[in-house]
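Running this now, will post back.
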Amino acid sequence: MNDRLQLAAPCGLYCGVCGILMAHRSNDQKHKEKLAAFYGLHPEDIRCEGCLSEDDDLFSYCRVCAIKKCTKEKGFAGCHQCGEFPCSIIDTFPVPVGKQVMLRSIPAWRELGTEAWMAEEEKRYACPHCGVKLFRGAKRCRNCKEAVDLD
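Update: finished.
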């Protein structure tokens, strides 16, 4: 699979702006420590190469994702292809910002198609003040320190 396409998580949480993937790829130890504390894990557990990558390259939570399992069973690339969206799996998603993003993102994915949707997500998660790439859920730009509300 194309490396870029493995970032198109079935749930609509585009992996290209995921804090876990970004911290892993940049080896940002401080960010890994914060994420580990949030998830109740160790910093070395903060690693992922995208939702559709091989199991060994997946974040532990993504390996057991009910949304990913559901879309696979239905033969869908993502929730954007499902007529039951939003469903009970989305409704009970345990991370509020994730649920909020899914409810915004899936309709956009339906409308734009995969490539354009991914490009829009990348564009959305850039600091409006300085342009630095941010991760989903960021409240402040790590570069210019300005407050952001991107989700």
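The mean pLDDT is 93. More later if anyone needs it.
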